[in-house]
Amino acid sequence: MKLIKKLFINGKIELLSGLHVGGSSTALDIGGIDSNVIKNANGVPYIPGSSIKGKMRSLLEMKYSEYTQRTGKVDSGMDSSANDSNPDIQKLFGSVAKESDFKTRLIVRDAFLNEEVYKQMKNKTGDFEKLELDYTEGKWENNIDRLTSAATPRQLERVPAGAKFDFSVIFTFYEESDNKLVKMLLEGMQLLQDDYLGGSGSRGYGQIAFKDISLSEKTAENYQNHAPSSGIVKNKTLDEINVDELNL
């Protein structure tokens, strides 16, 4: 496969409702948080790229893959019987099946807390003046046994609505026709925006919006000549980006 160019998609993920992407807890405190969000080594929450990429693939599989529609399972590319799985999805996200062996075009970086939001949370200023914890909030949930009416309360940790994360996606062109896969990628982002990210989505968690999206590209010649990337789109929403008009 020959490298043609790389397309860089950058912007912000804004939380419209609290987000819970589960992490591990190093200590269990009586009366404390029962389920923590994932954080980096400095205790600051972030969104793993695998969470973003995995949810987009799952949503696209539900729309395009006959294999997923028939079995209810997302095709991992490992199932040799998945002859009716969608080849464009396998090209976009990669596949290790012997029959297909598609190299992924897509890199999704971890999304880290936006610097301005980080400062507001750390200093308890702006929209986060009354934030309970350092960068997060606690939310009580209550599971009710339908037979006995017994209640099981628990407290979940969430990144609050209004937080913004900087996201970065890199798409590699190996064929001139790969622009149709870029269209599918943006559709996956739209599906994710209209669905939810993380856990407890049916309870209102994880509603997001992609904001301030910028696109730029770097060709094989740019790499050879040590030239910078060229801007294509700046500070747009998903609805404002039309791949057919970008001449990728």
Shape: globular
Instruction: State the secondary-structure class.
Output: alpha+beta
Beta-strand content estimate: 25-35%
The N- and C-terminal alpha carbons lie at a distance of 18 Å
SSE arrangement, N to C: EEHHHEEHEEEHEHE
Q: How many helices does DSSP assign?
A: 6
For the secondary structure, the number of strands is: 9
Measured on Cα atoms, how large is the radius of gyration? 20 Å
Number of domains: 1
Describe this structure in words.
- This protein is an alpha+beta fold and 248 residues long.
- The chain has one domain (5-243).
- Helices cover 23% and strands 26% of the residues.
- It contains six helices and nine strands.
- It has helices spanning 49-64, 66-71, 87-93, 115-123, 179-193, 220-224, and strands spanning 5-15, 46-47, 106-108, 111-113, 137-144, 151-158, 164-173, 208-219, 230-236.
- The strands form two sheets. Strands 1, 2, 3, 4, 7, 8 and 9 form a seven-stranded antiparallel sheet that branches. Strands 5-6 form a two-stranded antiparallel ribbon.
- Helix 1 (49-64) crosses helix 5 (179-193) and helix 3 packs across helix 5.
- Residues 27-31 have low confidence and may be disordered.
